[in-house]
Amino acid sequence: MEDVKILNGEIVLDYKWNPGQTIGKFLTNLKDGKELSAVRCPVTSKVYLPPQGWSPYANKKMTKFERIVGSPTLKTGTIVYEAPWNKPEGVEVPYMLAALSFVGADTELLHIVVASEEKLLALKPGDKLKPVWKEERIGTIRDIDHFVPENL
Q1: Does the pLDDT value for residue 45 go beyond 80?
Q2: Number of domains forming the structure of the chain
Q3: What does pTM read for this prediction?
Q4: SS3 for 104?
């Protein structure tokens, strides 16, 4: 067996990632206008949020953007009690990892819902939620910090 040497330290990598045209427009819209944008399939007319470049059913490029307005409703969710390694910064457990339904979209957006444990446990499918936007937006899905039950 050969000797194994372990070096303790930190590696910092500065890199840039090109999200592509479709996701890039989605992220830019979040940064600039506090709005969500989705894409419509030219064959099936399904609206995808978050947007994707190609229709999974029609194998066609999707370039027609749709503006999504209004607040979402809860489709389903699970309460997170133990913080994962990638816990969102500034969010404490418990919180809910949730699938959110928006009027006009045929798919759900995954995000987090923050409230007291009592309110999280009381949430049910169809309950209305509202976004809490970060003051300083940089063009990521976390420009929406989290969602809260509308009745808070």
Answers
A1: yes
A2: 1
A3: 0.85
A4: coil
Interatomic CA distance for residues 114 and 147, integer angstroms: 6
Dist. CA 104–CA 102, nearest whole Å: 6
In a domain, 127, yes or no: yes
Q: How many CB atoms lie within 10 A of CB 65?
A: 16
**CA angle, 53 then 146 then 24, to 5°:** 25
Tell me the average pLDDT across 38-55: 94
Please name the residue that has the structure tokens 């169809």.
126
- Cα–Cα distance list, 35 to 56, 93, 130 (Å): 24, 27, 13
Q: Using 50, 70 and 90 to split pLDDT, how confident is the model at 1?
A: low
Give the C-alpha separation, 55 to 62, whole Å.
6
Name the 3-class secondary structure at 88.
coil
Residue type for position 42: P
Which structural domain range is residue 33 located in?
A: 20-149
